[in-house]
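Rotation project, supervised by the postdoc (A.L.). Task for the rotation student: set up a whole-complex structure prediction and record inputs and outputs verbatim in this book. Inputs entered:
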Amino acid sequence: MNSTNNALYNYCLRLADNNLILGQRLAEWCSQGPTLEEDLALTNISLDLIGQAESFYEFATTFTEANCTADDLAFLRSEREFVNNVLVEQPNGDFAYTIMKQFLFSTFAKHLYTALANSSNQTICGLATKGLKEVNYHYMHSSQWLIRLGNGTDKSKEKIQFAANDLWCFTKDMFEMNSVDTLLIEQNITINLSTIYTPWKNDIEQVFKIATIDLPTDTNKIIGGIKGIHTEHLGHILCEMQYLQRAHPGAKW
Amino acid sequence: MVTLNNTLTVEDVWGLLNQIIDPDIPVINIVELGLVRNVKIGTNNCIVVTLTPSYSGCPAMHVFKEEITTLLKENGANAVEIVTTLLPAWSTDWLSAETKAKLKHYGIAPPQGLASDNKFLFSTKKIICPRCESNNTKLISQFGSTACKALYKCDACEETFDYFKCH
Ligand SMILES: [Zn+2]
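Outputs recorded:
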């Protein structure tokens, strides 16, 4: 693999892993949603994310040995090989916690896909253009709930504020970069993530203001996702997600 | 069934593809949906159908690929290849006025405005009830029976209905 292809492979894995792990987390809400409509909404968002993950894995396989499939990348890599951001692997918590996690990530994905829709790589451009339309709805869904919970009862406000405070330390990880980014930025395939940090934070501030909740302070940060260094939660979710393929290699529906 | 020579023309193929309907919206087919981007007869008479996915996670895409292959082979194709294209990205803007009318007749409010225009995407414009034409409607859930539809309620006729979102 030449260096650009190797970087593209790694970058696709990052995008795919984020979507797969968040999608798998949301799928845990299936039949547990607070209302039937919300159950459907969360699992439909999950389906969008898993679909996006599949497309990025498919693209990643074009840089691997011929017999590697998207399923192999999803089900046969170990924890240290996953390069998703630590935010998406965090457990669902209560409904407010899930909504906050969705909001923080969807806002990031919205800005990232907007930028990648101008990528010099045609596949990245196509997938980002399609993904953006879906992510716009995810952003609307989570921001509207956030505003409702913030302006709801004392209890709902307390829960959504707690979620913001608790998840804030994981948000910096979404903006981490390494040599993969450097190489792809040079070729206009991707963007410098620091350029979307301010737009991301502006959106967060704007919605938090309407929701009357406080922006957490930047005290500590937990990073490491793109290096394969994760919180303890990733191992557990992979265990559940990969069990079947590992116990019965090659099993098909 | 094996035929030595493929007797299907490009026109025949388009005609057959018109028979494949969307399981979630059984009144419109994959050609009307804009999923079929190209049909050509390739080398060794292999029929090459180019599809573009509607939604990333749409489970129907896998079904369409199998249905297309089966239907074309039943009608004399000896080889079928399905190619996926990502650009231009599929959009509800491609639905014709006729297709939108079919959606409405079926009870699904068709997409209003253009997906290419973010103004429509984030507007709070009232969605018109496909049953009674009232605009006295409200959003119940951003995601309805499938990810591509939102659930609305009409306060005039009291019915709930699906709205095919701009994408
Ligand atoms: Zn009505």
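Student's summary: The longest helix of chain A spans residues 122-150.
Supervisor addendum: Chain A touches chain B at residues 37-38, 40-41, 44-45, 47-52, 54-55, 122-123, 125-127, 129-131, 133-134, 136-137, 140-141, 144 (CB under 8 Å).
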